[in-house]
Q: What sequence folds into this?
């Protein structure tokens, strides 16, 4: 059920300012695609256009075409709310809902949408999602406790469980480990490996080792110059990218000579 | 900027008063004042005033001798500020003490369960007023409830508009400005509005509880909007994004995520707003009037409310009237304080959890 | 209200015909409309307050001069006298309240140990919560009576000043006492705002002053006050707004007539607009009702002006700091 994403000629604007220019790529189904690049190059902004989350920011708009398994995300008849159900997202900082228990946090996507379900069905979703996020064994005895009481890494895995509970086809992750310690980061990375059997995963990261460890394909974003829009420099299988990149600037960035 | 005087001496420990100096000065000042009081037969008030004055003057004087002019000025200001603090406590303590000492004897069960209608006393065969404030309690409850029912939805939805939809557009700016203007409406003007509105529709002489509710909501709405706005802005955008990313429409995000997260603050704000309007007198006096009997219909006829009860009992200028006024005042203060305290406790319990 | 989402378990096409997006859009649309409507209600209400007072009060501006007698012979003379009383009482209140409020705010923000400052701030907030009718009762029945000796002393020793010309009122219920009660009601407002403003002084400025060898008072004078000036002005203006509009505390404490007198301790006192309304709103004469509404309109505009200036000053200060 995971789906591939085709991106053609995407430009992103904030008001009059062109933030990202001319992106073309094909994101493979059931694989992990990583976006790397210096700060402010538009990789997070681009990630958000994949589930129309950029529309939350006033003045942001997109030109071009993004299709998920042949369906245009930006067709006027498409409800962004539907898009977000199909393309889930995990954020930079763990953000469980403070008013909800662990159990309710996992079910948030269903409950907030007033979906009625039986207790047994709900229990099943919770267990399946928490197991899917490698969190079940740690929290199964305290499902009624507030989600804010968990550690940072556990909170982030709770957020992943929450995202997969609504059975999306694609999972976007915006620097999911940047607020976590190394041990929690390792746990999340293991999880990403497991999740890719079932989902198409796109991850933005600042950490090149992480990109090399978890991803199958990598896209390198860069700015042409300060004040210029960001653009996709290179999109290649991760192995090639980290051993024999096409572009010089990619090599410079990966080897740490700039950025 | 002025340059500070250079210190003549280079020794760090040149002329400095000991740490206990202020206490010593206080002790000496009040001892001196006490001596004078004993000799001249003063009461407690001149004793405290003279003692305080001696202390306020004595401290900088001593400092001027031992330390320097700048230090003396500093000591003077410090003494004056402490004195100002002490003086401001006087009316508060005095007021609370008077209300309690005069109010407690006036309150008993019959005070709470009777209205002021005159009835024939079978024992004496004379007409006797009920002598209680049951009707005022019921009236205050209903009128305030009416105000809450009107102002909470309007206030909250306005706050939602300002925070979630209006993102600083023109309408939002105008509404913010008008809410500021509303904060400054004199309460009696709010009462006149209620009166003018209803006399225009129902004719001269109309008095209803709901008129008071409308007048009070005019005073309540700005507080509700302000606190609601403040609290919803405190909800991190992370949570809204998390909800949108789960495919939750905006309005459900507001109802199920933003409001529950801000609930403690919102409820606190509403309770503080209630505690503010529940003691309002002028608008109710003008718009609702006064009554002797229980009237539990907000939409017909005059109603008694607690503040107006205090006011009318006071203006009878009889010993019984004064006693009832003090009794009413004590009950009103207790209600207001309980609301305030409850608001604070709620805000403590629901304080934004910062755990991460 | 409730919209049932499509079954998430089964894989459905993203686009479900031309109305796919409308289901959720409708809930959002309705909700945002209600929110906007509430905002507009406030707008309309405030306009209504103005319009109603205007419609009902307008005839008062040109009312028969007969009804203003004996105190004056025209509406403007009448309202002028009331405005004088309103302002006079408010000025007395502010003269007392402002120094105390500043001192108290400094006490809480810079002078008192933390252990004392927090409860004091709380107590001051409680003072703000005491209903005005209780202040009025206390002012008239307790403060006025107890202050008689002081007022008599003013009469005897300062009688050469127009303010204390006397003869001292036998009940003590004078505009001076009304002013004191108003002052006590204003102190919490002014203190609360000033305390906020004082404590927002950048620590760097304060530490710079202390590091230069300034005493605490010099630090306050050269670092805290300049930074807080506009906030302090705004606080005083908001206190003034409260004092101008207060009704019960004034009308219960003193009996008054629309006259102009500077004498603060006699038994004839200048009425304020608000207390005058409270005293006469029961009048049978419809023309008097109209005149009272007209004076209410004047009061509204007057306090609006004061609040507006306060906000302008505060806003300018904020901009100046950035």
A:
């Amino acid at each position: 059920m995971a789906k591939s994403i085709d991106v053609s000629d995407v430009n992103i604007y904030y008001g009059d300012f062109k933030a990202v220019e001319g992106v073309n790529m094909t994101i493979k189904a059931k694989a992990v695609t990583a976006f790397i690049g210096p700060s402010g190059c538009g990789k997070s902004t681009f990630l958000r256009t994949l589930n129309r989350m950029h529309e939350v920011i006033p003045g942001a708009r997109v030109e071009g075409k993004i299709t998920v398994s042949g369906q245009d995300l930006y067709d006027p008849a498409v409800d962004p709310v539907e898009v977000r159900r199909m393309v889930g997202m995990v954020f930079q900082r763990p953000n469980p809902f403070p008013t909800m228990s662990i159990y309710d946090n996992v079910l948030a996507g269903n409950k907030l949408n007033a979906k009625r379900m039986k207790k047994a069905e709900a229990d099943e979703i919770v267990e399946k999602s928490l197991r899917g996020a490698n969190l079940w064994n740690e929290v199964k005895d305290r499902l009624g406790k507030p989600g804010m009481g968990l550690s940072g890494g556990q909170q982030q895995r709770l957020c992943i469980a929450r995202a997969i509970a609504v059975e999306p086809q694609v999972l976007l992750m915006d620097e999911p480990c940047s607020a976590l310690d190394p041990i929690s980061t390792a746990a999340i990375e293991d999880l990403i490996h497991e999740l890719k059997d079932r989902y198409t995963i796109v991850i933005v990261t600042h950490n090149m080792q992480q990109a090399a460890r978890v991803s199958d394909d990598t896209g390198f974003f860069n700015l042409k110059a300060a004040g210029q829009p960001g653009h996709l420099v290179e999109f290649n299988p991760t192995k090639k990218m980290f051993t024999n990149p096409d572009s010089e600037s990619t090599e410079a960035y990966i080897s740490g000579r700039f950025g | 900027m002025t340059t500070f005087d250079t210190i003549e001496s280079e020794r760090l420990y040149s002329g400095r008063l000991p740490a206990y100096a202020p206490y010593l000065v206080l002790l000496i000042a009040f001892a001196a004042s006490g001596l004078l009081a004993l000799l001249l037969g003063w009461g407690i008030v001149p004793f405290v005033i003279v003692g305080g004055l001696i202390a306020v003057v004595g401290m900088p004087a001593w400092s001027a001798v031992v330390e320097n002019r700048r230090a003396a000025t500093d000591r003077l200001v410090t003494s004056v500020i402490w004195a100002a603090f002490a003086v401001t406590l006087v009316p508060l303590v005095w007021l609370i003490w008077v209300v309690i000492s005069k109010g407690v004897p006036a309150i008993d069960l019959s005070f709470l369960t009777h209205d002021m209608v005159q009835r024939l006393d079978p024992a004496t065969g004379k007409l006797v007023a009920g002598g209680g404030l049951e009707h005022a309690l019921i009236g205050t409850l209903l009128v305030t409830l009416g105000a809450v029912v009107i102002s909470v939805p309007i206030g909250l939805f306005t706050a939602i508009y300002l925070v979630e939809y209006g993102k600083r557009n023109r309408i939002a700016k105008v509404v913010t400005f008008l809410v500021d203007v509303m904060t400054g409406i004199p309460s009696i003007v709010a009462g006149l509005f209620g009166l003018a509105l209803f006399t225009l529709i129902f004719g001269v002489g109309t008095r209803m509880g709901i008129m008071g509710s409308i007048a009070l909501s005019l005073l309540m709405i700005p507080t509700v909007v302000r606190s609601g706005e403040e609290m919803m802005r405190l909800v991190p955008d992370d949570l809204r994004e998390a909800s949108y990313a789960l495919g939750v429409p905006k309005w459900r995000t507001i109802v199920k995520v933003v409001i529950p997260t801000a609930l403690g603050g919102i409820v606190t704000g509403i309770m503080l707003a209630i505690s503010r309007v529940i003691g309002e007198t002028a608008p109710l006096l003008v718009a609702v009037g006064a009554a002797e009997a229980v009237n539990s219909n907000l939409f017909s006829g005059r109603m008694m409310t607690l503040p107006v009860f205090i006011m009318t009992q006071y203006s009878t200028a009889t010993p019984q009237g004064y006693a009832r006024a003090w009794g009413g005042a004590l009950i009103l203060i207790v209600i207001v304080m309980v609301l305030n305290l409850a608001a604070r406790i709620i805000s403590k319990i629901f304080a934004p959890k910062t755990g991460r | 209200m409730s919209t049932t989402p499509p079954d998430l378990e089964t894989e459905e096409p993203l686009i479900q015909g031309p109305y796919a997006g409308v289901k959720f859009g409708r809930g959002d649309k309705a909700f945002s409309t209600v929110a906007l409507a509430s905002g507009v209600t406030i707008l309309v209400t405030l306009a209504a307050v103005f319009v109603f007072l205007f419609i009902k009060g307008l005839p008062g501006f040109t009312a028969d001069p007969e009804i203003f007698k004996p105190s004056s012979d025209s509406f403007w003379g009448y309202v002028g006298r009331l405005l004088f009383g309103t302002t006079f009482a408010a000025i007395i209140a502010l003269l007392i309240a402002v120094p105390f409020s500043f001192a108290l705010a400094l006490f809480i923000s810079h002078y008192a140990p933390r252990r004392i400052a927090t409860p004091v701030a709380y107590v001051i907030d409680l003072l703000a919560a005491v209903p005005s009718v209780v202040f009025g009762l206390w002012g008239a029945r307790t403060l006025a009576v107890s202050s008689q000796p002081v007022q008599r002393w003013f009469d005897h020793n300062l009688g050469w000043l127009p303010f204390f010309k006397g003869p001292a009122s036998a009940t003590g219920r004078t505009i001076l006492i009304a002013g004191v009660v108003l002052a006590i009601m204003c102190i919490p407002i002014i203190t609360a705002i000033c305390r906020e403003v004082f404590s927002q002084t950048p620590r760097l400025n304060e530490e710079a002053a202390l590091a230069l060898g300034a005493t605490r008072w010099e630090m306050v004078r050269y670092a805290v006050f300049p930074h807080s000036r506009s906030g302090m002005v705004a606080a005083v203006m908001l206190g003034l707004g409260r004092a101008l509009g207060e009704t019960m505390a004034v009308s219960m404490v003193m009996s008054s007539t629309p006259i102009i007198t500077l004498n603060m301790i006699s038994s004839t006192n200048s009425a304020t607009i608000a207390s005058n309304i409270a005293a006469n709103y029961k009048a049978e004469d419809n023309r008097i009702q109209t005149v009272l509404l007209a004076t209410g309109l004047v009061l509204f505009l007057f306090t609006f002006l004061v609040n507006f200036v306060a906000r302008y000053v505060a806003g300018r200060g904020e901009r100046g700091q950035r």
About this structure: DSSP finds eleven helices and ten strands in chain A. The radius of gyration of chain A is 18 Å. Chain A touches chain C at residues 1, 68, 71, 73, 75, 77-83, 85-86, 110, 113-116, 166-167 (CB under 8 Å). Strands of chain A lie at 5-14, 17-27, 32-36, 60-68, 71-72, 87-90, 170-174, 200-204, 217-223, 230-237.
